[in-house]
Amino acid sequence: MSHTVRISIGVVILIALSMLFLFGVVHTAAGAPRSGPRAVSEGHRLAQAWCQPCHAVEPHGAGFFDNAPSFQAIADRHGTTVLSLKVFWRTSHQNMPNLVISPEQADALAAYILSLRGD
User: Fold this and answer.
1) SS3 33
2) H or E segment to which residue 25 belongs
3) Is pLDDT of 46 > 90?
4) DSSP-assigned letter for residue 57
5) How many CB atoms are closer than 10 A to CB 97?
6) For 40-44, 64-68, 99-103, which range has the lowest pLDDT when averaged over its residues?
7) pTM of the model
8) Average pLDDT of 58-87?
């Protein structure tokens, strides 16, 4: 194989990899966590339906069980982010049921919790 053909093949491969990377970045940006009033409202609705038996989901509210932190307390913890919440929900915990929620539901719950963060 000649040197020119190898260079041409290398350029084609480089272009193809660049396109795959570009589409991957565009897809990631399009699949970014939802935020805003609609996500916060949906997250609040989900929190009331799923989490309220154990957690205080309303700002400055009290929970049913003392060992379950309020959503306000979770929001105000240093290091609470969308990612940290999603990792927590995907990890088994002794005092919390295993959650099976869609990525969109996780984004909405995270948006609601983070909306409670005190300034």
Assistant:
1) coil
2) helix 3-30
3) yes
4) -
5) 9
6) 64-68
7) 0.68
8) 85
Residues recorded for the chain:
119
A 10 A CB-CB count for 107 gives 22
CA distance 24 to 63: 42
Q: Which two tokens stand for residue 32?
A: 């970014």
* Cα gap 40→35, rounded to integer Å: 7
Tokens 């909306």 map to which residue?
Answer: 115
Sign of CA dihedral 76, 80, 81, 87: negative
Identify the CA nearest to 96 among candidates 75, 69, 77.
69
List, for residues 77-104, the tens digit of each pLDDT value: 999 999 999 999 888 887 888 888 899 9
Q: 58-81 b/e with 16+ CB inside 10 Å = b?
A: eeeeebeeeebbbbbebbeeeebe
Query: Tokens 């963060």 — which residue?
Result: 117
